[in-house]
Design a protein that fits this description.
It contains three helices and eight strands. By secondary structure, the chain is of the alpha+beta class. It has a four-stranded antiparallel sheet, covered by helices on one side. A four-stranded mixed sheet has the order 5-6-7-8, covered by helices on one side.
Length: 163
C-alpha cells in the first residue's frame, strides 16, 4: 500500500478557502436533504440541487487537494484538473526555474521535475518573491523563500537517497 504524504499543499499554506467551500457545500447539502425528508411536501424539482452540489463538492475537494505529495514509490503532483504520478526512477532532478503561467514564462520560480526521458513537469509550488506584482497562477501555492528552499532541498535529498 502506498502512503502519500503532502509536503506542500493548499492546507499547509494556510489557504482555508477550499476547505471552507467543502464545509459550506456539505452543510448546504445536509440542510437541503433534511428539509426534503422532514418537510410537509416533497417536490421532485428540489432534486435538481444534487447534481449542482455534487459538482460543487468535486471542485472544492480538488482545490483542497492541490499540492505536492511524496511516497516511497514516487512523487504526485495534484492540480485542479489533472494529477501526475511519477516514479522516483523516472525523475532525473528537481530544479527551480521560472514557472509557466497562461502559456508564457512567469516572473516567479516554480519547482520542476526533470524526467529521465527529457520532459519536464511543473509543480504547483512557487517561490513567493517579494516585490513582484501578483499574477494569475492557476491555484498554485506561493511559499516564502525559506519554506520553498527547504522543500526543494528535501526533494533533492529524497531523490539522492534513491540513486
Amino acid at each position: 500500500m502506498r502512503r502519500w504524504t503532502r509536503i506542500a499543499g493548499v492546507v499547509a499554506t494556510g489557504k482555508v478557502m477550499p476547505m471552507a467551500l467543502v464545509g459550506f457545500g456539505t452543510a448546504m447539502l445536509t440542510f437541503i436533504t433534511v428539509r426534503l425528508v422532514t418537510g410537509p411536501t416533497f417536490s421532485p424539482a428540489a432534486l435538481i440541487v444534487y447534481p449542482f452540489m455534487g459538482l460543487w463538492l468535486t471542485i472544492a475537494g480538488r482545490l483542497a487537494a492541490i499540492g505536492l505529495y511524496v511516497s516511497p514509490s514516487g512523487v504526485r503532483i495534484r492540480r485542479l484538473l489533472r494529477t501526475h504520478t511519477v516514479e522516483w526512477s523516472r525523475i532525473g532532478m528537481f530544479i527551480s526555474a521560472p514557472g509557466v503561467v497562461l502559456g508564457g514564462e512567469g516572473a516567479r520560480h516554480a519547482i520542476w521535475l526533470h524526467l529521465t526521458d527529457g520532459s519536464r513537469l511543473q509543480t504547483p509550488i512557487h517561490h513567493n518573491t517579494p516585490g513582484l506584482a501578483v499574477a494569475v497562477y492557476r491555484h498554485d501555492i506561493m511559499l516564502p523563500p525559506t519554506r520553498y528552499d527547504a522543500i526543494l532541498a528535501d526533494l533533492r535529498q529524497r531523490l539522492q537517497a534513491r540513486a
